[in-house]
């Protein structure tokens, strides 16, 4: 920890210590640049303590039990409830009980300087920091300031909601007990994953989805299969419903949700999973001509438009609200900053160049750890058609693959490739089924590498694995 009372100069100053910010620090320090990191909460950010890590720790036992129940000879041994206390303790282990000592030790080990406190841009190339103790610091950047402040959960302007103490993703991933009845508003990844986790941990879950289905950013069949499985697990999934008001009396009493039309539902906790907004309302954007509270627009190198020294990586630039994409952007931007600091005369800005975040728009993968898992990369069929591509969707029943049948009795799933008919390469792929997330990286390589279908035909999947789905899809395409 560095404590100073006057302005200090670094090569790079990073505002926000989540995964994207940490990766910027890692890349710039590896390039020999002096780097300071400013973080008001825990180093490691949302992903480490309230999102990816704790949610997967909660979900893994649920998915493992579901898989085991589909295996003959094992199914009868895993019919009882999960040990909720053990699952929560395991979750706490993976979040380091919400302590960031290990992350701070890592920063020290690479020679980065940590400033704890609220950071704000303070004009060109400067960041002002106010520590929890009230100390004030001004940091000056020779080469770059990087904003990596992420997002926060949106709480809609619904009458009574603010006073009802709703859960957001933070409370849903850090709760110390399973609520008896959990109402989930939303159909997004957070909503679907947390409904899966808490239903498995003993809560009675009711999902209230404003749209027509779950996981609206994926192929429609993904949300349909996930909703079907949630219902079979005992959850209630209702679509095309709208919350008009929320009522809660007292600090521990039940919460009531009033739906459009007057119907009232009651639960012990209410999770609002209705989107994210940029965490930019009080970070000094106005001092550099940007609008507080807005997403920060960037070019493909993640440099902020109109500012040759300012970068924004991760959720805050709205290119891709995914941890792995934020880390990818940080690797790209870190390389750009290092190259410009070294006076490299020309950056590699070709379509898949080292200094361009091409995957954000062309090969972005996402895995949803519901039961069944849903995994996708690139464009959906509808997105490809809207973009003007001449495409064909190639579908196959995952349950008809030998490896899937051996993986689980009654395996249910589906796969789709979106093929560009003019170039005969993949624009997108989606897999839904138990363990389907492990199919995703092969598809990501195929999409990012623009591997011709004719060449993919020679990538022979091992028998009998679930990956044999690739052969079946290509056979279907070739006819």
UniProtKB/TrEMBL annotation:
Organism: Streptomyces roseus
Family, similarity comment: Belongs to the class-I pyridine nucleotide-disulfide oxidoreductase family.
GO BP terms, alphabetized: 2-oxoglutarate metabolic process
Key word Plastid present: no
A Pfam cross-reference name: Pyr_redox_2
Disulfide bond sites: 47-52
Domain of life: Bacteria
Residues holding NAD(+): 186-193, 275
Positions of the FAD/NAD(P)-binding domain: 10-324
Entry protein name: Pyridine nucleotide-disulfide oxidoreductase
């Amino acid at each position: 920890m560095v404590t100073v009372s006057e302005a200090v100069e670094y090569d790079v100053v990073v505002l926000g210590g989540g995964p994207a910010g940490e990766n910027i620090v890692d890349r710039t320090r590896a390039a020999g640049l002096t780097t300071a990191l400013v973080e008001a909460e825990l180093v490691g950010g949302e992903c480490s303590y309230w999102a990816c890590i704790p949610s997967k720790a909660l979900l893994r036992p649920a998915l493992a039990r579901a898989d085991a129940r589909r295996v003959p000879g094992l199914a009868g041994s895993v019919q009882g409830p999960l040990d909720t206390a053990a699952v929560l303790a395991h979750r706490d282990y993976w979040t380091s009980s919400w302590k960031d000592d290990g992350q701070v030790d890592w920063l020290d080990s690479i020679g980065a300087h940590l400033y704890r406190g609220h950071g704000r841009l303070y004009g060109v190339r400067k960041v002002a920091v106010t520590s929890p103790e009230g100390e004030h610091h001004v940091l000056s950047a020779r080469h770059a300031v990087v904003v990596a402040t992420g997002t926060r959960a949106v709480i809609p302007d619904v009458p009574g909601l603010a006073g009802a103490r709703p859960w957001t993703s933070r409370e849903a991933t850090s709760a110390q007990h399973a609520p008896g009845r959990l109402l989930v508003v939303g159909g997004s990844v957070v909503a679907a994953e947390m409904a899966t986790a808490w239903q498995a941990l003993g809560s009675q879950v009711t999902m209230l989805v404003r749209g027509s289905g779950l996981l609206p950013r994926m192929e429609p069949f993904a949300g349909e299969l996930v909703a079907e499985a949630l219902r079979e697990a005992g959850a209630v999934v209702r679509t095309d419903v709208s919350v008009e008001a929320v009522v809660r009396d007292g600090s521990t009493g039940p919460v009531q949700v009033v739906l459009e039309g007057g119907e009232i539902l009651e639960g012990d906790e209410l999770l609002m999973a209705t989107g994210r907004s940029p965490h930019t309302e009080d970070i000094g954007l106005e001092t550099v001509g940007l609008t507080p509270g807005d997403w920060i627009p960037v070019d493909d190198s993640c440099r902020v438009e109109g500012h040759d020294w300012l970068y924004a990586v991760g959720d805050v630039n709205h290119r891709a609200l995914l941890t792995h994409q934020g880390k990818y952007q940080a690797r790209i931007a870190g390389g750009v900053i290092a190259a410009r600091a070294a006076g490299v005369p020309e950056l590699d800005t070709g379509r898949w160049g080292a200094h361009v975040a091409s995957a954000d728009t062309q090969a972005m993968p996402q895995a949803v750890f519901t039961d069944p898992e849903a995994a996708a990369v690139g464009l959906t069929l509808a997105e490809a058609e809207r973009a003007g591509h001449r495409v064909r969707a190639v579908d196959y029943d995952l349950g008809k693959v030998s490896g899937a049948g051996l993986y689980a009795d009654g395996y249910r799933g589906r796969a789709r490739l979106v093929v560009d008919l003019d170039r005969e390469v993949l624009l997108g792929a989606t897999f839904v089924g138990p363990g389907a997330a492990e199919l995703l990286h092969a598809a990501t390589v195929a999409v990012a590498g623009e591997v011709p279908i004719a060449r993919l035909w020679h990538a022979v999947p091992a028998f009998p694995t679930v990956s044999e789905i690739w052969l079946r899809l290509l056979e279907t395409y070739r006819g």
